[in-house]
Specification:
GO terms for molecular function: chorismate mutase activity. It catalyses: chorismate = prephenate. This is chorismate mutase. InterPro entries: Chorismate_mutase_AroH, RutC-like_sf. By secondary structure, the protein is α/β, with parallel strands linked by helices. The protein has a single domain, classed as RutC-like (60s Ribosomal Protein L30, Chain: A), CATH 3.30.1330.40. The chain has 2 helices and 5 strands. It has a 5-stranded mixed sheet. The radius of gyration is 14 Å and the shape is globular.
Length: 124
Amino acid sequence: MYNRGIRGATTVHRNEEHEILQETVILLKDIVDRNDIIPEDICSVWITMTQDLDATFPARAIRQMSGWDLVPLMCSTEIPVKESLPLCIRLLIQVNTTKSQKEMKHVYLNAAKALRPDLLTDSK
């Protein structure tokens, strides 16, 4: 077993609680599905948001998902770099797996696709 990191990011249109929670769930489910993992395999999830998002904690959405109540979650804000992608939610999932680093499927959705154009073949 190895501990691997899986990255993902998405964006929202507005700083609204419902939209932040909804897009967080969509992103997490996509990462989990593409990597064939279950909550029991996950060590922790680090969640960051850009400073223009403060309507809610995105961890709330994950905590409500079935089987995710014991997964350690941490929310934080991104470093405020000028001209960085606004309204962005990022996830770093640490997972125990037998897969190689190369086999990890990172997921970038919505405007966050611009963050990693090299991975567009793996993202919607």
